[in-house]
Amino acid sequence: MLLISLIGEQPIPNLLPIRALRPEENLFLCTSKTQARAAFLRRLIDSPAADLLVDPYAFDATLRKLQERLAERQDVLFNLTGGTKMMALAAYALAAQRRLPFIYLESEKHANLLYRYTFLDGLPYLQEKTTLPALINTAEYLSAHLPGFELHDFPRDEHGRLNDGGLFEQAVYQSLKGRGLDVLSSIRPLGVGHQIEIDLAFRLENQVGIAEVKLGGSEGGKRGLDQLKMAGEPTYLGAYTAQFLIVAAPRLLGRASTLAAQRNITVIPLPEYAAGQPLPRPAAERLYETIRQKLTGAPQADAR
User: Fold this and answer.
1) What is the arithmetic mean of pLDDT over 14-30?
2) How far is CA 132 from CA 117, 201, 241, in A?
């Protein structure tokens, strides 16, 4: 099977179907702006992948290129999830002309639902709907969006000891790791110097969040929000990346709390934290539950 993927700013709707369906070949329909995304994806798949460069808004030219490229192929499946609307319309037009199947990935409601359509009497017919299992890890999610990244230690002082902020980050990391999350810490994306640093990234199923971990204070909270804003841009880590600000002293956040709400950033207060100590169990469970609900949309677990 040859899977046609429309490459836009969001790579995960392309990567998950490839992982789930394991096509023998891939064709990435991309533009001059999304060729880098296609290159990132190519690093994460096992099957060969070629690029077909198109104008993002030229319906006729895109359809013509697809017709020429696929003239001799019958075992073709289209993923219509990504790309621009004109790219999707061109791909759909060819699928309809030749009665070729297509898929669409729904990611808006936390679960990843893959819809597969075939044509019946000239009209698209939903053949099946599948909930995708976990298909990626946190590192692969980052690699789908970034040219590369490095992992560093928690912040330390001039004597090489974990400073107060580093101790808090370590306590949060260990708490999440101990509850089964796939967690990475102290992430520095390549190609941006020290402009972007991500304290934590974690995954549940196929959903990923990033967090800034701060002891508190209005300045610390504002810096954390600024880091999340840069890292969480749709053109950087993608529209589906949840963002969290984890703080030990929420009463000191001040205006940062309002900014967080305006930016759809979830603030998780952990006032029970004691310097240099693991998170107390109630705080650790509240931390995990807040993240779980945000990433999966699941209701709060029964505490009994």
Assistant:
1) 97
2) 16, 21, 18
Pick the CATH number of 2-131 from 3.40.50.10770, 2.60.120.200, 1.10.10.10, 1.10.1610.10: 3.40.50.10770
Is 132:104 a contact under the CB 8 Å cutoff? Answer: no
* Residue positions counted in the chain: 304
Task: Give the residue extent of every domain in the chain.
Answer: 2-131, 138-296
**pTM across the whole model:** 0.92
Rounded to whole angstroms, how far apart are CA atoms 210 and 202? 6
Q: Please state which CATH class domain 138-296 belongs to.
A: alpha beta
The pLDDT value recorded for residue 217 is 63
Residue 263 has pLDDT above 90, yes or no: no
CB 107 within 8 A of CB 13: yes
**Distance (Å, whole) CA 187 – CA 183:** 11
Angle between helices 35-42 and 138-145 (to 10 degrees): 150
**Do the Cβ atoms of 11 and 145 come closer than 8 Å?**
yes
- The predicted model gives 61-87 an average pLDDT of 96
Q: Convert the pLDDT of each residue in 195-240 to its tens digit.
A: 789 999 999 999 999 999 998 765 566 778 888 888 888 788 978 8
Range list of β-strands (E), the chain: 2-6, 25-30, 49-53, 76-79, 102-106, 113-120, 123-131, 149-151, 182-189, 198-204, 207-216, 242-249, 266-269
Answer whether 2-131 and 138-296 agree in fold: no
In this prediction, residue 109 has a pLDDT band, given cuts at 50, 70 and 90, of low
CA-to-CA separations, 251 to 92, 136, 270, 289, in angstroms, rounded: 53, 37, 11, 21
